[in-house]
Amino acid sequence: MSRRLLPAAGPARTLALAHLANSVGDGAFLVTSALYFTQVVGLTPGQVGLGLSVGWAAGLLAGVPAGHAADRRDARTVAVLLAAATALAVAGFLLVRQPAGFVLVACVYAGCQTGLAAVRQALLARLVEPERRTEVRARLQSVVNAGLGLGAALGGLALWAHTAGAYRSVLVLDAVAFLGAAALLWRLPARRGAVARPAADGRRLAVLRDRRYVLLTVLNAVMMLYLPLLSLVLPLWVSRRTAAPSWLAAALLVVNTGAVMLAQVRLARRVVDPPGAVRSLRRAGAAMVVACGLFALSAAATAPWAAAGILLLGAGAQVYAEMAHGAGAWQLSFDLAPADRHGLYQGFFGSGVPVARMLGPVLLTWLIVDGGGLGWLAFAALYATAAGAAGLVVRGTAWPSAAPAALLAPGR
C-alpha cells in the first residue's frame, strides 16, 4: 500500500489499516455473494433480495445505539466487539440453509456493519485534530476503495473456479479479515480516564431534537441514493438502453475506483471549514447534473464507440460529484456534532447509507432504467436540490467546539 495513500504513522494509520483489512474481505464477498446464496445455498434471487432489504432495515436501527455506546464507553472496545461480531455473522452465512436463517444472519451482519461504521467515525473524531479530519476521512475512503478492488480480484478467482468450496473460502476470508480489523482496532489508544456520562439531554434520541442536524442527515441520505448507480443502474442502462458493449459497465466501475484512490484526498484537502463544505456540496450537485445529462445522452448515440465515450465522460463527472459530496458531508457531519457526542451524531448521520441501500435500487431502477432519459434528469434535479438545500440548512449555525485529540492516551 502506497505511503501516499495511508495517513502518517500513528492512530490514523492504524485505523486505515483496519479499514483496509475488512474492505478486502468485503470486496471478495460482494462479487461472489449472489452466486453463493443462489447456487450453493439454493435461495431464489427474490429471497436474497428480500433478506438483504430486511437486513439493511435492521442496520438502519443499529447505528445510533452503537454510536451512543461509543460515547458512554470506550469507543475502541465497542469497535473491536462489533468487528468481531461481524466476523461471526459472516461465518454464520456458512451455516445458512433456509430463507429464515438467511434473514436472521443478514440482520446481524448489517447491524454490526452499520454500528461499526458509526463507531469508527467517532474514533476518527477523537483521534484526529479537527482541521485534519476531512483529509484523513478521505484517505480512509481511498484505502477502502483499494481494498475493495483487491478483494474483488480475489473474489474473481472464486468466480473462475465456480465451486462451492471456492465460494465458502471467500466467506472464510471475509470473516478472517474482520478479525484482523478487530486486532488492529485494539491497537488504537484507549480513552484516558473515566468516560463521561451524558446528562439527561445526552440520551440516545437527543440528536432528534437537533433539527438542523436531522435535516442535514435527510438531505445527505437523498444524495446517497447514488450508491446503486454503478453496481445496478448503469449496468442495466448500458445493456438495455445504449449501443455500448455490456462489459463497459465494468470499465465505469474501474474509472470510479481509480479516481477515488487518486483524487479523493487531494480534493478533500480543500475542505477545512463549513463554508468550504457547502461550496463542495454545491459543486457536487452541479457535477451530478452534468453526469446525468451525459448518461441520458448516451442512449441517443447509435455507434458503440460514441455511446462508450459519452458514458465514460459521464462516469468522470459522477465520480467528481461523489468525491465532492463526500468531502463536504464529512466536514459538516463533524462540525455540527457536539464534542462529547460524536458517536451518537455520527451513528445518526450514517443512517443514510442503509436507507440508500434499501430504497436506492428500487427507486432508481424504476426512475431511470424504466423511465429513460427523463428519469436521469429527475434524479439530477433531486440530487442538486438536496446539495443546494444543505447550504441553507447550515447557514448561521454556531459550530460546536471539537474535542482535542490530546484527551486520548498515546498509542501503545
General description of the model:
The protein is mainly alpha-helical. The chain has 2 domains: 1-191, Growth Hormone, Chain: A (Up-down Bundle); 208-399, MFS general substrate transporter like domains (Growth Hormone, Chain: A, Up-down Bundle), CATH 1.20.1250. The chain is built from 14 helices and no strands. It has helices spanning 11-40, 45-72, 75-92, 99-127, 133-161, 164-186, 211-223, 228-241, 248-268, 274-298, 304-335, 342-349, 352-370, 373-394. The protein is globular and about 60 Å long. The two termini are 23 Å apart. Residues 198-202 and 401-412 have low confidence and may be disordered.
Defining traits:
single chain; 412 residues; mainly alpha; Growth Hormone, Chain: A; 14 helices; 75% helix; globular; disordered C terminus
The figure for the number of domains is 2
- Determine the number of helices (DSSP H or I, runs of at least 4 residues): 14
The residue fraction in helices comes out at over 70%
**Into which percentage range does the β-strand content fall?**
under 5%
Main β-sheet description: none
Globally, the shape reads globular
- CATH fold category name of the largest domain: Growth Hormone, Chain: A
The sequence of SSEs as H and E is HHHHHHHHHHHHHH
Which architecture of the largest domain per CATH?
Up-down Bundle
Q: What is the highest CATH level, the class of the largest domain?
A: Mainly Alpha
Number of strands: 0
* CATH homologous superfamily grouping of the largest domain: MFS general substrate transporter like domains
Structural class: mainly alpha
Detail the poorly predicted runs.
198-202, 401-412
Q: Give the integer mean of the pLDDT values.
A: 86
**Rg measurement, Å:** 21 Å
State the distance separating the first and last CA atoms: 23 Å
